[in-house]
Amino acid sequence: TLTFAAAFSAFTNEVIWLIVASFFLSKGFVKTGLGDRVAMFFVRWLGKSTLGLSYGLVLGELAISPGMPSSTARAGGITSPATVVMKMARRDQALGATAAGLGTAKRRIRPTARQMRRGMGFTPFQRSCRKRRRTAAWQGRVGTWGLTSRSGGVEASLPLPVGAWAFVCLTVTVVTKTLTFAAAFSAFTNEVIWLIVASFFLSKGFVKTGLGDRVAMFFVRWLGKSTLGLSYGLVLGELAISPGMPSSTARAGGIFLPIIRSLALGVDSMPKDPSSRKLGAFLIQSQNQCNNSTSALFLTAAAQNLLCIKLAESVGVTIPNRWITWLKASCVPALISLSVTPIILYLIYPPEIKATPDAPEMAKRKLQQMGPVKRDEWIMIGGLLLTVALWIAGEAINMPSVVAAMIGLSVLLLCGVLNWDDCLSEKQAWDTLAWFAVLIGMATQLTTLGVIPWMSKSVASFLKSLSLGWFGAFSILQISYFFIHYLFAGQTAHVGALYSAFLGMHLASKVPGLLSALALAYNTNLFGAIAHYSSGQAAVYYGAGYVDLRDVFLLGLSMGVINLGIWGLAGAAWWKILGLY
Hints:
Blueprint: H1 4-7, H2 14-32, H3 34-46, H4 50-64, H5 71-102, H6 113-118, H7 125-135, H8 143-150, E1 153-155, E2 158-159, H9 162-175, H10 181-184, H11 191-209, H12 211-223, H13 227-241, H14 248-266, H15 280-297, H16 303-315, H17 322-348, H18 358-370, H19 375-393, H20 401-414, H21 420-424, H22 427-448, H23 451-465, H24 470-483, H25 491-508, H26 513-526, H27 536-543, H28 549-578
Antiparallel strand pairs: 1-2
Helix pairs in contact: 3-4, 3-5, 3-7, 4-5, 9-22, 11-16, 11-19, 11-20, 11-22, 12-13, 12-14, 12-18, 13-15, 13-17, 14-15, 14-27, 15-17, 15-26, 15-27, 16-22, 16-25, 16-26, 17-28, 19-20, 23-25, 24-25, 24-26, 25-26
Pfam family, one: Na_sulph_symp
GO cellular component, one term: chloroplast inner membrane
Main location: plastid
């Protein structure tokens, strides 16, 4: 009935974003206490009688309503608490009068500590209002000046979150008329952005239904009799769920880290202790390093993969039948890497415990506790298989990948596996929507305005002066792209800053476009474990406390070089067979 662009065209509508921004502004009234202050001012002024009290509350709401468009928020966040304060004050006055009349009270009845913390129940009433205003001093400061003076920091020592900073930058481009409103917000109708968001919601189902835990425990029970087998079981578990769970951080923190921690503690392998080397440290590093190739194997296994594809299109490289093309090019080097990584780590970072006979039994008990596969898990399996099938056959049936993801998500919502609150609570998805859209929009404009082509030609001219062929330029650019990641915290930040520029340099150096786009995208996953800050999952695994920082850097560098070698040699040979160059 509608094309995707037509269905989502309202996301470039100014009125929609005016409403959204006004809701955010109204949050400031509640958070700063300014709404309470205004309401209490009028209550103190007119609150000597019940009729005056009602007028005071009405005037308070009248004063704040222009900047607080949510009547529900005004009622629940400000007016309702103010009314409760009045009732508590009147109740205390009545109790005080009764006690005095009976001669049983020698002093005024005071509010409880709970009431004092909530700002309720003070006596007399005017002192309540005065105290409420006094303790709220400085809470009504205007946040805009604070953000400006701190140059992107919420506090002097804390950086502004990426999503918030992206929104500020977007605002600046519109205010300065660098971009029109429609151009600045054009990426919010982008199919890839909504594919990422829908995939995050699908991944929520793995955690909520327990299907992710069940799959992981199945492989642990099957292969977990030895430490090496245990590591392969965990890797296979992640490999099985990664196509439908695009957040490697969620896979690490929500599924595999709790399992690894339980296995390690079961053999007295404790974090931040010499005993960590018994089992926990090895399993952590094995899973962390294998995550690189797991994320690189499937297009939908990591959010940055989808971002790379979209940025490639903005530079002029179109990838046909994305899901299949990606998998065909990645399968050989990724599977080789996944096969040898646990063995290499077993040799250079060996666990003290070689056999884990209790692990299969633990997994068996866990599976027994879960019981048979439940209805929601079957629906999750069916929805995932349907989505992946549509991703694979999408080009043949003329169905965009985002529509396939929307169908899978709709199945989960209609069947009650997920509810809308689950989607709303997935903050990472909404944050990704906000700043990925800004990033893609600006990257597209940089290409349109000629910045990326100019930079690419400059670097290509330098490489040409070295008398290198396109393969030499390709190798230098890929290695540079990998090791420069030590300067970045996170993979998506690296992609946003450098992917388009490096792809442009490849193209200007006459490197085949499809090869360049895919190799850079795969490379983006390979550096995810070179440091504790290099990706979200690396930070999660390091935070478990099983691996020393020194070992993180040494193993990260060693395995990074090994993976570069695998993908550079086996990958290059396989890509030649596929005809990518």
